[in-house]
Amino acid sequence: MAIEEFHSDCILPVSAFIICQDEKRYLGNCIESLRGFKEIVIVDSGSSDGTLKLVQSYIDRGWPIRLFSEKWRGYAGQKQFALDQCCEEWCFNIDSDERIDDALRAVLPDLLAADSSIVGWRVARRPFLIGYGYTPRHVHERRNLRLIRRGKGRYDLRQKVHEGIIPNGRVGNSSRGSLLHFRPLIMDEQILKENKYSTLKAEQKMEAGAPSRRLKLIFNPPLYFLRLYFRNGLWRCGLPGFIEAMTGAVYSFLTEAKIYQRCVMQTTPPVDDVAGSAGQRDAKRS
């Protein structure tokens, strides 16, 4: 990918902030989509794949990037560190594998000009589905708070995954535009990701004192699927949409199953009592 010199006729008073590690494959297009932002804060946690060289090439061409190296603090902690480095009035969180679409770029000036009672904006995200491409504009994930006034929100450091900004004030929903999420993982890789994230989610819930509930284990996965497939509109995306919704259900199942098994292990550790089990079976037969 050829990297152009940084030139922009419209400078937005926004600090975009990105956390990354070994994201050379995706980060370039993310940065390119931020053209016009006054500042781009990138916090790297130990890349070894050429990510740092890529970022430096943008810096050398005049892009307004401030690069930091920081030991991994967890998702929420790392993003809070990045947010703390931002200098502009507005701060925009974007991941390395995300890009701003044209509609969001067009509406950004209006969002930034909001009344001072609005401290942030939630933005939709559209994933890239293998075999389909980016979902249509009306088929997207729920909106998440990504644009926040500096000093008006912080991350909840107790969150291990799916971390979000806790705002100090009123938040609006952007009705136009979205982030494009480009990380096309084949199912082998996607399941590994869901396994990792479900472990973090289960640990987070248990640390918060959430008990194991059998009804949630039984009903949450199908409800998760139905929400993604029908309410979010993935049914419009054919078989790739079905796979995406099913993958979400797998994540939900793994999370609840891990909570259940961890709770059982705490109260009734497994014992390999072969003789006892055989004796109980003989007693039942007699």
Look at the structure and give the CATH class of the largest domain.
Alpha Beta
CATH architecture of the largest domain: Alpha-Beta Complex
Main sheet, how many strands, which sense, barrel?
Answer: 9 strands, mixed
- The assigned structural class equals alpha/beta
CATH superfamily of the largest domain: Spore Coat Polysaccharide Biosynthesis Protein SpsA, Chain A
Q: Quick check: average pLDDT?
A: 94
Number of domains: 2
Give the tally of β-strands.
11
Number of helices: 8
CATH third-tier fold name of the largest domain: Spore Coat Polysaccharide Biosynthesis Protein SpsA, Chain A
Uncertain runs: none
Domain Glycosyltransferase 2-like: 15-143
Organism: Aquamicrobium defluvii
InterPro entries: Glyco_trans_2-like, Nucleotide-diphossugar_trans
Keywords: Transferase
